[in-house]
Amino acid sequence: MFCVENMYPWRTPGGELKAYVPGWDPTDLDYADLTLDLSHASTSGQQSIDLVRSWGSRLRHVHLTDGTGFGQDEHLVPGRGDQQAGRVLQYLAEQQFLPGTSFSRSIRARAAPAHSGKPTSPSRWPLRGCTWQRPSIPHTP
Q1: pLDDT at position 111, please?
Q2: Distance of alpha carbon 118 from its chain centroid, rounded?
Q3: Is residue 58 part of a domain?
């Protein structure tokens, strides 16, 4: 499976630079499988929950990050930006997207605080506004 990830426009003093072909938003393009990066949605001025709903079954992979709408990609800890990560997770759980369900999809948490440039351990994240429990996965012999 090859998933196309949402990106964001590159803004310069002279206007928007076309950095991705055919474009930074795969929503209206004919790709079967998509990856959602919440931080990229923030940078592009979109809301991840809207993309999740719009993409439906094409959504296959999620980069659980966050952003404040700043002009560059931030990859903040989920819940520390404007992407309502908890709401996105709740919606995905309701749609049986999360691991342990019948769909072959995945979520990866990734954050790199601006001051360090290094990803932090998800076990150390205070997920503000995120109340999600991983569903139990039945053992299959």
Answers
A1: 56
A2: 18
A3: yes
Is 83 within a domain? yes
Q: How many structural domains does the chain have?
A: 1
Does residue 93 fall inside a structural domain? yes
Q: Are 109 and 80 in contact (CB under 8 A)?
A: no
pLDDT at 1: 77
Q: What is the pLDDT at residue 57? A: 86
What is the mean pLDDT of each successive set of 10 residues along the chain, which is 141 residues long?
92 90 95 95 96 93 91 89 93 73 58 49 44 43 45
Phi first, then psi: what are they for 17, rounded to 5°?
-95, 125
In a domain, 130, yes or no: no
- Give the domain extent around 90: 4-124
Determine the pLDDT at residue 115: 46
Give one DSSP letter per residue of 43-107, joined into a string: HTT--HHHHHHHHGGGEEEEEE----S-SS---PPTTSSSS-HHHHHHHHHHTT-STTSSS--EE
Measured N-to-C along each axis, helices 85-94 and 48-55 cross at an angle, to the nearest 10 degrees, of 20
